[in-house]
Write the structure tokens for this entry.
Amino acid sequence: MKGIKIKELQECIKKENAEIRRIQNLADAKDYIRRHPTRQTLGADLVWRGEELISAGHYEDGIALLFEAVRMPEEQLLSADTTTLFLRLAEYYLERGQGSLSLQKGRQYLEWVCTKGPSNYESSIAQSGLTEIWKKYKHLVEEEVPPSSEKGITKISKSITEIRALSGQERLNELGQHVYEMSHCGSNLSLLNRWERILFDLTTLAWEHGSSGLAGYFCGYSRRYQQTKKALETVGIPVYLDILAKAENDFPGGMPKSQEAIENAVLKYELEFEEAEQEFFDRDGETEWAKRMETWTAENIEHFR
């Protein structure tokens, strides 16, 4: 029954993501809003898709979606990536606007990045891949906003001493969160040792695959794809190695090398990796991943700090 429920949830997520990815311009976005007027994630959906379009070179269409998102009621922006939203709008006004009003609006959105989003906003900016934009314009507001609390990232996980006393899935979950926090939400992997990076890569793969499917993982998190495959070999998780190999065959002309090229191919060819996804569920890949990860972390727990 567990596998059936997971599969149904995965199919639901895939359908929702596919619908969002069909949004190509503002007219499509307005139609999407019309069909889902009460969806609480409307703002998050448009920010996500808008940034995808911008990253894929469709700037005008992407920024139009962000402007549509920022006008939404606050309750529909609760789960949105406001760091990306506000920084992209600041960039728009500062680079494409004219006159003092545009400068004022640009500064306002820069301030909102620092005051309406995470207190560790520089880590959030880095995680969104927008550090260069921030470096270019932060001088406009850095004397007026609080410093980014990089040393004050909210601690959710237990201490490593407490984690070592746990076992099984509970320890794996806490350890994954602990390593995520150690890396400043994935923005600085140089803070992690070899074992911590392996855990970071494999939990990122599993978490993003589980929430957004392989297409979502490839679009947002394939920057460390080669390191992730090596981590799978190190830990020994054949089901993931097999389905990733199958997914690679779905790319016309072979698997691209860079994350940007991978993302562009997924969007251009509307890849959903259906055979790979089906094999994962047929083999109960989630259980295999969890068992191997629990065993591996138990064998190597002394390496985690």
Summary: Confidence is low (pLDDT under 50) at residues 1-6. The first helix runs from residue 2 to 21. The domain at 155-305 is CATH 1.20.1420 (A middle domain of Talin 1).
